[in-house]
Amino acid sequence: KILIVGACGQIGSELTQALRDIHGKDAVIASDIKPSTSSELSGEFFEILDATDYENFKTVVTKHDVDTVYMMAAMLSGTAEKFPEKGWDLNMTSLFNVLNLGKEKLVNKIFWPSSIAVFGPTTPKVDTPQQTIMEPTTVYGISKQAGERWCAYYYKRYGVDVRSIRYPGLISYKTPPGGGTTDYAIEIFHEALKSSSYTSFLSKDTALPMMYMDDAIQATIAIMDAPAESIKIRSSYNLSGLSFTPEELYAEIKNHIPGFEISYESDFRQAIADSWPDSIDDSEAKSDWGWKKDYDLEMTVKAMLAGVKSLKKVN
Ligand code: VAH
């Protein structure tokens, strides 16, 4: 069985649906720290699970005979700057718990998400390479960099089959923004359709690596389906989809909503974004396990506008 930890989150909720579409609902156990309102994330294939509680984690894994865990629970960059110790504790304890389940042979395959947040202001900003200087300046980035080292250690020392991707900013419409620095690229679609204006908390020329959620989900499934021997990097793989600025995103949305207006008021997240790369080189992911992006900026904007509109009809 597959267990998704953090199944109510931005990635977890879509990963749960995608894996259930492939393996069937009864093969994928969703779990989160709190009960969920949505029908797919409740009922007999849903468990309340605090990922920082090892005994709770172990109980769920043995009860459902889990062999594969996607450990998606984390505190994201913006929120972690407000609660540094809590952010470190959640992000690291949940990782150690799932790695130790692997070391104890209670599960035999693990996915853990890293982020382009592992890079810092001294990292080359354009086409950031897989191996390079990494001096992250955020709590979230520090936790993801440390987490990558522990994944590589547990693979080398204990043979734990843990696989990881450095996600760029992910753009999706099915869950509300979760406290990330790249959330402007989600909020902007809701505001464009609601009030035809948006105030961006990042400046107009802030280029960031981004990706539409469907691409992130297909990459996650691809790296987990790949044969173990093809996963040559056991810290975490660079992954790149798009790179754009708020001004470029605004211009593409304006093609669909002519009256849409944007203004810029940087907040504390500007310093976080300024410490991250503009774009990423993901050639290793392409060569090792066949990664190929589908969504360009035009397709992402079309999908997001259609998606947000579809939510309005439902609610
Ligand atoms: C964040 N969306 O903003 C996440 C992600 C690269 C950004 O890690 O914290």
Description:
The protein has 315 residues and is of the alpha/beta class. 43% of the residues lie in helices and 16% in strands. It contains eleven helices and twelve strands. Strands 3-2-1-4-5-6-10 form a seven-stranded parallel sheet, sandwiched between helices. A three-stranded mixed sheet has the order 7-9-11. A two-stranded parallel sheet has the order 8-12. Helix 5 (139-158) links the parallel strand 5 (109-115) and strand 6. Helix 4 packs parallel to helix 5 (139-158) and helix 6 packs parallel to helix 8 (246-254). Bound molecules: (3R)-3-hydroxy-L-norvaline. (3R)-3-hydroxy-L-norvaline binds at residues 76-77, 115-117, 140, 168-170, 180-182.
What is the compact description of this entry?
Belongs to the NAD(P)-dependent epimerase/dehydratase family. The protein is of the alpha/beta class and about 325 residues long.
The main pleated sheet reads as: 7 strands, parallel
Q: Which strand order does the major sheet show?
A: 3-2-1-4-5-6-10
Overall average pLDDT: 96
Uncertain runs with pLDDT below 50, 5 residues or more? none
* Overall 3D form: globular
